[in-house]
């Protein structure tokens, strides 16, 4: 009974998922990942983009000045990105659990079934992004999709 209560208390949320440039090297892998995501979440919006340096700098402005920032900007402008708006109850937490931490090597040991463990290359080239809060999700979804999405409820 308790597990049911916890599950039903989660709010309907929409979060941003990014599939980063390295995943585009193998079309079949990219398709398989997107199908896996669609099985667990409703994809409310989808957009493939190629970022300019300015786009990447605006999105990752909070990291400016950190040692990894130049590598991150270079990586995120190296090829296409697939932005997905994922909707379901507890979407933010569930997507972040599914992708794992930003350290793929650590995830391969601690949580080998996470997406970053399976596909991430390095701490910077970790293949996926997930919003870390409702406020971040709102800001990030607006960055990619413009207006507030209809299912972006809390």
UniProtKB/TrEMBL annotation:
Which Pfam families does the UniProt entry name for this protein?
NDK
Residues of the Nucleoside diphosphate kinase-like domain: 12-151
Give the binding site residues for ATP.
20, 68, 96, 102, 116, 126
- Enzyme nomenclature, EC number: 2.7.4.6
In the UniProt record, the signal sequence range is: none
Which InterPro entries does the entry mention?
A: NDK-like_dom, NDK-like_dom_sf, Nucleoside_diP_kinase, Nucleoside_diP_kinase_AS
Identify the domain of life: Eukaryota
Q: Which SMART domains match?
A: NDK
- Tell me which Gene Ontology terms the entry assigns under biological process: CTP biosynthetic process; GTP biosynthetic process; UTP biosynthetic process
Q: Per the record's keyword annotation, is Thylakoid included, yes or no?
A: no
Annotated GO MF terms: ATP binding; metal ion binding; nucleoside diphosphate kinase activity
**What residues make up the catalytic site?**
129 (pros-phosphohistidine intermediate)
The protein's annotated catalytic reaction(s) are: a 2'-deoxyribonucleoside 5'-diphosphate + ATP = a 2'-deoxyribonucleoside 5'-triphosphate + ADP
User: Could you tell me which SUPFAM superfamilies the record lists for this protein?
Assistant: Nucleoside diphosphate kinase, NDK
Keyword field: ATP-binding, Cytoplasm, Kinase, Magnesium, Metal-binding, Nucleotide metabolism, Nucleotide-binding, Transferase
The record's comment on protein family reads:
Belongs to the NDK family.
Task: Report what the protein is called.
Answer: Nucleoside diphosphate kinase
The organism of origin for this protein: Coemansia brasiliensis
